[in-house]
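Database export, one record per block. Field names are fixed; values are copied verbatim from the stored entry.
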Amino acid sequence: MSFNISSITDVFKHLWFRDSADDTIWINDTAVRIRAGILLAIPLYMGLTLFNAIYGSHWIVTGNAIRDTFDTDFDGHILYSVEAIRRTLEYSTQTYVLWYGLFEMLSGMFRFTSRLSPTILISSFLAKRLEPVWKPLTPKRFAWTIGASFITVCLIFFNPEVFAGWVNSLFGTQLLPTTSNYMPRWIPLVLVWVCFGFMWMETVLGFCAGCKVHSLFVRMGLLQEECEACNNLSWGK
């Protein structure tokens, strides 16, 4: 059955919320999984960018010919003469993508900001004809906080001089260098692919790693806010 005006209006009004007036906010996990699949493009793009930046060639051959010098190095390799420049990488596009990803992570945490998220609106439309699976927002909010922290680390890696300038201005001293990247390259590379793995599990398997961590912290007493899903309580409709 195709969408009608009433169903479209209903999506705009409720998005993925069961009832936005409830004290405990419940959201449709079917829409959450669809949204995770849409946002999966961000860590994939960033992972390929980082792989190219770290393991790709650092030189661009600019000459029209590669000439044999008729000489070899100590290992017997033939030496060639080329015209080349060192590759300069520019990350403005990646920075915009990361800022958008951070916006998406933060916007889903609250009722009002959820209405500003294009992916929440799209996923709510796509999930409209599917059976809803209601789950509390609290553990999802915790999971998205982890995702937001990963994105923040990547933003610092791609913009080290900007972050160093902020820190140095705040403390009034040269704590961080502004002419070199002080963050080890493996940190954002690992975080991006961990994020990709978590989002893939959410999309394909319906397994929310951040929610499991939240559940563990609740049971350990590190988090006082109760999570009904973590306590194996059901919600019928």
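Remark 1: The longest strand covers residues 67-72.
Remark 2: The radius of gyration is 24 Å.
End of record.
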